[in-house]
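<amino_acid_chain>
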Amino acid sequence: MTIIMSHPKTKPSLKRLKSKIIIDRLFQEGEGLHSKHLFLRLIEDETSSDLYAGVSVSKRNFKKAVDRNRIKRQLRGVLKALSPIPFAGSFMLIFKGKKLPITQNLIDEAKLLFAKA
């Protein structure tokens, strides 16, 4: 078991977004950024030293749970490839494409999205 400790002056550690309250707040108050296949909702919180991240895939576009789970694994891999992410707060990364993606294409799109943020 690894424990992630964060120092206030270091970049925030990445944690899973699980709170329904924060997720609702993301979609009501958060800023939205789009790319071709990705949608990013985020709320920056400079007082927090943690970064909460969630990933999502539409059930309408991918009927099979196997496909949705694969894309979610790819999105989590993208977040690990991009870490450290340069802000603190909460965000949700949503895949809105209609075909199974290639991981490298997702990484490139996510880099562009986080550069806008």
Summary: The beta strands are 13-16, 31-34, 38-44, 50-57, 89-95.
